[in-house]
Amino acid sequence: MSLKGYKLIRSDHPQDVKRGGTCIYYKDTLPIKFLNIFNLSECLICEIQYEKKKCYIVSLYRSPSQDDDTFNRFMSEFEIILNRIITPINPSFVIIVGDFNAKLSIWKKDDPDTREGVEIGALTSSFGLTQMISEATHILPNSSTCIDLLFTNQPNLIIEAGVYPSLHPNCHHQIIFAKINFEIFFPPIYDRQIWHYNNADVNGIRESINNVNWDRVFLGINVNKQVEVFNNYIMNIFHDYIPNETISINNNDPPWITKIIKMKISNKDDLYKNYIRNGRTALDFQKVQEACNLVNNLILKSKDKYYNRMSLKLKDPNTSPKAYWSLLKSFFSDKKIPVIPPVFVNNEYITDFKTKADQFNIFFSNQCTLVDNSSTLPNHNILPLNSLTTCHINADNVLELIRSLDANKSHGFDQISARMLKIGDKSIVKPLLLIFENALNEGTFPLLWKKANVTPIHKKGDKSNIKNYRPISVLPLCGKLFERIIFNSLYSYFNNNNILNVNQSGFRSGDSCINQLLDITHMIFKSFDANPSLEIRGVFLDISKAFDKVWHNGVLFKLRSNGVEGKLLDLIESFLCERYQRVVLNGQSSCWLKIKAGVPQGSILGPLLFLIYINDISNNLESNVKLFADDISLFSIVFDKNLSSRTLNNDLIKIQQWAYQWKMNFNPDASKQAQEVIFSRKTNKPQHPDLLFNQSQVQRSDAQKHLGVILDNKLNFNQHVKCAMDKANKGINVLRKLRYYVPRDSLIRIYKTFIRSQLDYADIIYDQPSNMSFCDKLESIQYNSALAITGAIRGTSKDKLYKELGLESLSSRRWFKRLCQFYKIIHGKTPEYLYSIISKSNHSYNTRHQYRIPQYFCRTNYFQNSFFPYTISEWNKLDPAIVLTDSINIFKKSLLKTVRPIPNSLFDACDPLGIQLLTRLRVGLSHLRDHKFKHGFQDTINPLCPCNMETESVSHFFLRCLFYTNERLSLIDELLLIVPSILVLNENHLIELLLYGKKDYSNEINTQIINLSINYIIETKRFDIPLL
Asked: N or C: which end of the chain has fewer CB within 10 A?
């Protein structure tokens, strides 16, 4: 079919049957070319050049009738295409569209997961691709599924994507579409002061601070003025002794465009204008050409320097995980796309960054308001048994806090950074100690330390909606040091006097999300295991903006009721009042606005004050209550459904009354104030009476996210694992991009920090050790990551890959982490509520003859595979010598020896391509015909080398192939100079030496051996052709 003004290119079914195939219509005025370098049939790839960028559009069809081998080949060929069009530097805009005949529930909620969908989803996610279609595209009388898909690596450029009805009544496939917007709003240029700390005159700074007579400087002025004077003195000293400059930040320019390059670009533009003005003479044209060449060369050199500099930072083992993440973002982020796009306020889009900052600040400050009700403080006040009127401050404590600061921590609006404080060291203790003591004596928290810079962070949903952002506040660091001193005294007092709620796990030393989740899931699994199986009703409450709604008078009342008095109470009252904030966006600041309620976000004291405020919320409740900061959940094991509902309803009324008394609000959406999940494994589920909260029916759902884990009603964790895998898959693309810039050990570190960590969280909760399908699904993340790190070919042995990198399998890792957690529990390193779960023997645990833990009797596999029964079983299998170790670190090392392989070393070899090719030979899947034949490649019908001598194995390639005689002679000659003893090695030992080096040799010799092998591999050019 022809379309006027469009050309057609098509790729039909390879067997010329009347099904399948794909085509692209395109405007002949477009700068478009089609790529014919791939072997995937029924696939078209076009490249469109726009400005200085490329856009790739891929249209393909995958037959639903593919057998396993054909699908595996499709996946390999599809991965080759993705590697080609999604490049690490200056990434192109990619759209992949077609009929994939694959289903995945994260694409369309009610679609079942198919093997094809899972693998295609994992692969595309690992390349940073997002699937944009979420509606049914294939509609039959009895089913509607989403199998026509649209992937892109820049979803922010997709204005709209969706489905149109089919143009023909007999066609079951709907039309999928996407509207693309290439217009980008650039953030403004702004100035930033840069401090060159490495060149600081440290002795000069300390001497200058010590020379200030701080007692005289502070004499006769209040603490607010003291902080102001201190800031001025300190900043003047730092300005004099630390080289600094003000630079213009232009997010429109790539980071390698320097001032000199900008000057040369300006000069080139002037020459071009002269060329036009002077009538386009040959001499002027030559000058323009020379200027263009100069600019291009400077940019290339500067770009190389930039990436080398970033690479060195990534290689540095001392780089913190936070700094690593920042580097990765700066390494590959697209500078032309602002973090926060235009926001929609009052029926218009706001693009101006100053106005945008003001709107965010108005929204955030409006959240910090009290509930408007008639509640007043209680009349009675119980006299506490103990009291706290002050906090302990001395010079040693202040110095210890300064030295413990993270040097990379963000500073507040006062510009005093952690690096500055650490450089000042002892010299800065005296003025800070005087200010702290005076603040305590006056009962005044300094005003300047109560002003916060706020950055909006997108949570989820539409980025143009201000409501979908949360504030991150940054306060002055000196104020946070003072907060830490107050916190230490306050927390010790509340903890030592057992005042804090035993059900509260948030912000408690020794407690964690994982501990609480272990307790909850054990209760549920144990109830499932009862005979007959019991159900559990769980109610999850959502306090609206809990930290922002704290009533200052209320928290002061509760502090006073618990014995906090005198100047310390005055200080905390001052800390809460007269606080201000502003929003800062791309160098643009909003006006300062006053905060009227709540505990300060980003502060040290805020979380503890909140815990004190809600400390009594669970008083007199009959349900099993769990608190984690502002997350409140109630659980009731259903022995009698009517009794259970009465208990829960009574408790919900008490919580409602508590909230009214203390001016707290729950989610303004009545349907979200409280959510219920009825955990059940029963086939015939009974009807339970409804629950009410705030005069609204509590909504029931099949799952609830609690403390970062999705708890579904059967507790099979499928939803949670899908989400975790999706997040982890997206990180694999980073590894693939970085493979050519950073060494392997850095890539492994990045994998562990940013990808494996997604699966590590709560893995001992969701683990299903006897479910092989479940374990394999999770293992695919690590396998794909290992492929990305090494450049190995899909189909490579998992065990060989893990041995190459020194990675234990994820199932072994979960086994290890279960046992480590159990060690902590039985040694009292976790809260008492976990230790009480374990059935203890009559003898003490750590005697020589009684190291085994009595096991649970489990009626069901659900309970048997849950944490406590399964881990106790595994614990009792351990060697007594491991179990009875006194140190958790020794225990960990002993376990790791049994599951973590020793990695194969690359020594100091640094040729990325050569390392990739060497690794393929090591792990047994490369271009060699022996490898391809064993792995069933269709283009390899026998393993015979083209030289017709014998099988093209690794030893044949290195030692006997007739094609590479000269290269081999050169390899042997150079190897003899390093290791003369190779003449007495047999063939197997020589190949092992060439591939792995030898542990008895020095690092230098091994590096030379590996480099010789790599040089030989590259010089033969055997692996230059693409893998088919």
From this structure: N
Report H helices in 739-829: 744-750, 757-760, 763-766, 772-790, 798-805, 810-826
Distance CA 954, CA 1023 (A): 13
Q: What is the DSSP string of 292-346?
A: HHHHHHHHHHHHHHHHHHHHHHHH-TT--HHHHHHHHHHHH--TTS-SS--EEET
Tokens coding 826:
């039985």
Q: Would you say the C-alpha torsion 758, 764, 766, 771 has a positive or negative sign? A: positive
Q: Which residues fall within 8 angstroms of residue 479, CB to CB, at 6 or more apart?
A: 412, 445, 446, 448, 449, 450
Alpha-carbon distance 1017 to 917, whole Å? Answer: 7
**Sign, Cα dihedral of 648, 653, 657, 660:** positive
Nearest to 315 by CA among 908, 730, 1003: 908
User: In whole angstroms, what is the distance from residue 246 CA to residue 193 CA?
Assistant: 4
Kindly tell me the number of DSSP H helices and DSSP E strands found in the chain: 36, 30
Evaluate if residue 182 carries a pLDDT over 70. no
Burial class (CB in 10 A: 0-12, 13-18, 19+), 28: exposed
* pTM to 2 decimal places: 0.81
Question: Could you report the per-residue pLDDT of 804-843, keeping only the tens digit for each?
Answer: 999 999 999 999 999 999 999 999 999 999 999 985 433 3
Nearest residue to 498 (alpha-carbon basis) of 832, 838, 836: 832
> What residues does 50 pair with on adjacent strands?
53
pLDDT of residue 954: 97
pLDDT tens digit string along 908-944? 998 889 999 999 999 999 999 999 999 988 888 999 9
Q: Give the C-alpha separation, 658 to 661, whole Å.
A: 5
From 1004, 977, 979, 1003, select the one nearest 993 (Cα to Cα).
Answer: 979
Query: Tell me, what's the pLDDT at 50?
Result: 67
The answer for residues whose C-beta is within 8 angstroms of residue 532's C-beta and 6 or more apart is: none
